[in-house]
Every structure is written in structure tokens, then in C-alpha cells.
């Protein structure tokens, strides 16, 4: 139990460290209270499982455990009018939405939730075999209304943040995706203005190279999109998300020969 108590003390201390008095003092206070409640649940003995069952004296606490480890990064745009509106949205209990980070237009990074905790940012979707992205990802919201370019200051700060996250959690290059990739048809963020090619060049996600590519006659592009990760239950919706990400100037929902080359090139990178 000593090891468990020390771990809980470390977690609570690290979570509360950044919550200094500021203009967000009121909501920071609520954050602290919620963290304390979770710490109380972790300390509870006998341990309860997710079904609420008590094991009493038969419970034997293992000494081998750790906190949640994020393995994906999901990038969003806020679709709101400035960072303050977004921060307000994420601090109102009735909205039930949140993210780990908000990156403002001027490059300021707001860390809203400890990386080891589960934010409510991805919602319903699917990527490969994953159906609960909130449990394994970090959500980053970019201060952008979806109909404008992303500022250089914002992109510079985002790259620095992604560098830290990738190194800290050993996140694979393939696992930096957009909300639109996770939830085709339901979400389109970050928008067609977002520079995925720049991120890929820095090691966050992949980009294609169709130089010298010859696509086999029997190549199934829709199946390849599924292998990359897209939910292809509705092919035209998967195509739309693929194009927003990789061919943003093309607003159609059909695949041409250029698309087939791009998808063929991407498939080898995402496998």
C-alpha cells in the first residue's frame, strides 16, 4: 500500500501543480476537486470493479500497474470565435466536451488536462480496430473557425507540442490523425486549410510520394483506405475525409487515378 500511496501523492501533486491562481481560478478549483474525488476512489478498499462488485478480503493488490499511456494524437479545430470561447466551452459541465490542449492563434498553448487522464474530445468514430479513441489519445484543439488559414504562430507552437508528446510517450508516426479521419462525415476538422504535409515532414503522420508509382490493375483503393484506418462502411464519406486530409482542393467524393496512386503510396507507410 505504501507504493500505491506514494503514486497517488505524485499523481495528485503533478495534476495540481499548474493550477495556480489566474483568471481561470474558479474552474481550476473545480478541476482540483474532481482530481481529489478520483484519488479518493483509487484509495478505496476493498477495491471495486466497474460493475460495482466488492471482493473484500479476497482482494490482493498487485504491485505492477501504471497510469494511462496515450498512443494517439487527434487534431481538431475549435470552430469557435477565439480561445476564450473555447476555454469557456471546455469548463462548462453541461457541455461534457474537453481536450488536453488548446493552441491559440498567437501561439499560446493552454494545457487543460493532464496527459494521463481521459478527455472528452473524439466522440463516436472508428480508426482501424479502435472504437474508443478518448481512452488512448491526446486531444489538441486549434484556435480556428474552420474557414481560414492556420496562423504561422499556431503551427509553430503545434509542432513544438507534438515533438514533446511524441518523445514523451513514444507515439508512432502513423498515430497523428485528424478528427475528420476518426469520424468521417460527422467531423471535418481540422479543415482543408490545415497543412498536413508540413506535419508529416516533421514526423507527425504520413504524406504520399507518387513519383514512379505504378498501381496494380487489381488494386482496391477502398479496401486500402480501410487498411490505412478509415471506416469505409460508407465509402463516399471515407473518401471525403481522405480528400480533406490529403487532397484538400478536391471536394468530390469519387476516386480518380491520381487518388489511386496516392492511396497506394500511403498504404505502404501506414502498414
Helix content: 25-40%
Class of secondary structure makeup: alpha/beta
Mean pLDDT: 89
Order of helices and strands: HHEHEEEHEHHHHH
Oligomer: single chain
And the CATH topology of the largest domain?
Lysozyme-like
- Counting DSSP H or I runs of 4 or more residues, the number of helices is 9
Q: What does this molecule look like?
A:
The chain is of the alpha/beta class and 271 residues long. The protein folds into three domains: 2-58, no CATH class; 72-201, Peptidoglycan recognition protein-like (Lysozyme-like); 221-270, no CATH class. Helices cover 38% and strands 8% of the residues. The chain is built from nine helices and five strands, in the order ααβαβββαβααααα. Strands 3-2-4-1-5 form a five-stranded mixed sheet, with helices on both faces. A hairpin with a 5-residue loop joins β2 and β3. α1 packs antiparallel against α2 (25-43) and α7 (221-228) runs parallel beside α9. The radius of gyration is 21 Å and the shape is globular.
Attribute tags:
alpha/beta, Lysozyme-like, five-stranded mixed beta sheet, 9 helices
Describe this structure in a few short sentences.
The protein is α/β, with parallel strands linked by helices. It has helices at residues 2-16, 25-43, 83-90, 152-169, 179-182, 196-201, 221-228, 235-246, 257-270, and strands at residues 72-77, 101-103, 109-111, 137-142, 176-178.
Amino acid at each position: 500500500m505504501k507504493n500505491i500511496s506514494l503514486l497517488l501523492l505524485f499523481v495528485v501533486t503533478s495534476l495540481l501543480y499548474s493550477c495556480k491562481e489566474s483568471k481561470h481560478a474558479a474552474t481550476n478549483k473545480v478541476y482540483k476537486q474532481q482530481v481529489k474525488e478520483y484519488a479518493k476512489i483509487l484509495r478505496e478498499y476493498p477495491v471495486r470493479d466497474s460493475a460495482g462488485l466488492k471482493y473484500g478480503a479476497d482482494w490482493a493488490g498487485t504491485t505492477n500497474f501504471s497510469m494511462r499511456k496515450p498512443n494517439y494524437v487527434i487534431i481538431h479545430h475549435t470552430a469557435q470565435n477565439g480561445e476564450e470561447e473555447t476555454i469557456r466551452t471546455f469548463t462548462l459541465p453541461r457541455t461534457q466536451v474537453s481536450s488536453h490542449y488548446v493552441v491559440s492563434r498567437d501561439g499560446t498553448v493552454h494545457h487543460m488536462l493532464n496527459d494521463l487522464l481521459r478527455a472528452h474530445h473524439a466522440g463516436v468514430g472508428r480508426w482501424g480496430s479502435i472504437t474508443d479513441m478518448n481512452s488512448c489519445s491526446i486531444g489538441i484543439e486549434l484556435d480556428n473557425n474552420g474557414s481560414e488559414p492556420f496562423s504561422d504562430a499556431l503551427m509553430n507552437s503545434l509542432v513544438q507540442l507534438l515533438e514533446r508528446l511524441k518523445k514523451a510517450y513514444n507515439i508512432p508516426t502513423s498515430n497523428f490523425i485528424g478528427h475528420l479521419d476518426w469520424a468521417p462525415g460527422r467531423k471535418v476538422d481540422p479543415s482543408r486549410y490545415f497543412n498536413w504535409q508540413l506535419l508529416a515532414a516533421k514526423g507527425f503522420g504520413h504524406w504520399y510520394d507518387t513519383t514512379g508509382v505504378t498501381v496494380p490493375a487489381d488494386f482496391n483503393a477502398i479496401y486500402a483506405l480501410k487498411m490505412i484506418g478509415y471506416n469505409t462502411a460508407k465509402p463516399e464519406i471515407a473518401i471525403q475525409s481522405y480528400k480533406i486530409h490529403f487532397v484538400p482542393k478536391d471536394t468530390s467524393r469519387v476516386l480518380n487515378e491520381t487518388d489511386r496512386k496516392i492511396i497506394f503510396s500511403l498504404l505502404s507507410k501506414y502498414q
